[in-house]
Amino acid sequence: MSALDRFATQKLEALEAKSLKRTLVITNRGKMSSAERVIGEDRHSYISFCCNDYLNLSQHPAVIEASISALKKFGTGAGASRHITGNHELYTELESKLAAIKGTDDAVVFGSGYLANLGGIPTLVGAGDLVVVDELAHACIHGGAQLSRAALHIFRHNDMAHLQEILKAERAKAQHALIITDGVFSMDGDLAPLDDLVPLADEFDAWLMTDDAHGLGVIGEGRGSSFKKVVETGDLSQKYDVPLQMGTLSKAVGSYGGYICASQPVIDFIKTRARSLIYSTGLPPATVAASIAAVDIIANNRYLCAEPVRKARIFSKAVGLNEVPESCIIPIVLNDPNVTLKASQLLQEHGFLVTAIRPPTVPEGTARLRLTFCADHREEDILRLAKIIRDEILLQS
Ligand SMILES: *Cc1c(COP(=O)(O)O)cnc(C)c1O
Q: Catalytic residue numbers?
């Protein structure tokens, strides 16, 4: 065995011993949150409660139609980076629709959400600056923050006193400061406390950025976490003043790509300097066309956008969870990875697909089932799932 193969084999064995080895399983998603898993000759169909296609727009006829016609008109690939010849006309349309839904001057679309954070953050802060990130913020925020070479500080999850403490100690040493958090936390489903974050950022002259990968299409009539209070009060002036609203087109939008919405100078600057935009090929036109059609649906269907959270609330009430969910993500934390894998297996035996989420996706000792609720989930299926989780998982553990 070569040294390289021995290295990989030993690493894998160590992970397997801790129930942390991961293997890819063929999963074919179909209509109505159904998913087929293929293992060897075996094919099993499940109702999926772990997709992020919250509005089922990846299957929507108008979205598919828009994608097919762009495919026929423009071909399969963008052919180059957006700064060379990859900036087809569909980009302009998508960016103006995203800016409109978020209430900003403009937007910039990247190849993915991961690339938006990896490229966007280092464009805004660098050596001599400060970046402060929530400990549970998405991996690509931590990645972008590290790449930036700014002084990086992590605050305890949603702990405003801790954030303030860091800003008090560190802000004066830095030229610019950036605070970054998830608008909706991807593995926990809770929201960032924007009521406190916005004034705190202001007080310390720091820029605030939210990653709303799980907010667009779901929170604030589909416009994202910055619009949460607008819905409660019906007053557009209640929008949270978050100057950098980042997100993805791969979740509720049902397509692929990432974006940052901000003011004109900020977007122009990011388009000029973000390395993951400059040195990576533009998105396939058909993908951008699908996003345009899906964003249109989100902008015009606030009742559809309210469905995922409504479904999550039906589930949480049926299980008897204490907190009323604010998003369509509900974690059932079982702590031990092996216990979590077994719980996931049990749900599969009942026809439900809920994959186990293990470290390092979540912190050590907090392995969980991460349930996501979609617009098309049927109430009877939600109640059946809730009963199994309550009686066969929670009461047994
Ligand atoms: C999924 C996700 C991303 C990455 O987006 P992709 O478009 O899938 O690369 C970034 N941030 C958060 C919070 C996410 O959940």
A: 186, 214, 251
